[in-house]
Amino acid sequence: SDTYVFVEVKSSSTLARAAQSLSARQFARICTSAEDYISRTPKGFLTEMRVDVALVDHIGGLEIHENASM
């Protein structure tokens, strides 16, 4: 089955700082936007989805957190 993946990308000098730059309010807005989009798909809220967060540091280091939550 198809899964919709919504990804928020945060970058900073370190991965830890990138993670700290995502606020609960921002994450809530991302989730609301994802839910709004999913509600318009043919299967609506029965559509599989997740929200990932990608963290990037100044040298291009990358961490991806699947199914992120606050």
Task: Show the helix and strand layout.
Layout: E1 3-11, H1 15-20, H2 24-39, E2 48-56, E3 62-65
Parallel strand pairs: 1-2
Antiparallel strand pairs: 2-3
Quickly list its features.
alpha+beta; 31% helix; 2 helices; 3-stranded mixed beta sheet; 70 residues
Kindly describe this structure.
This protein has 70 residues and is α+β, with helices and mostly antiparallel strands. Helices cover 31% and strands 31% of the residues. The chain contains two helices and three strands. It has helices at residues 15-20, 24-39, and strands at 3-11, 48-56, 62-65. It has a three-stranded mixed sheet with strand order 1-2-3. Strand 2 and strand 3 (62-65) form a beta hairpin. The longest helix has 16 residues, at 24-39. The mean pLDDT is 95.
Helix content: 25-40%
The share of residues in extended strands comes to 25-35%
What class do helices, strands and sheet pairing give? alpha+beta
Count of DSSP E strands? 3
Principal-axis shape = elongated
Number of helices: 2
As residue ranges, the low-confidence spans are none
Q: On the 0-100 scale, what is the average pLDDT?
A: 95
Largest sheet: 3 strands, mixed
- Largest sheet, order of strands side by side? 1-2-3
| Radius of gyration from CA coordinates | 13 Å
List the secondary-structure elements in sequence, H or E: EHHEE
What gap, in angstroms, lies between the N and C termini? 26 Å
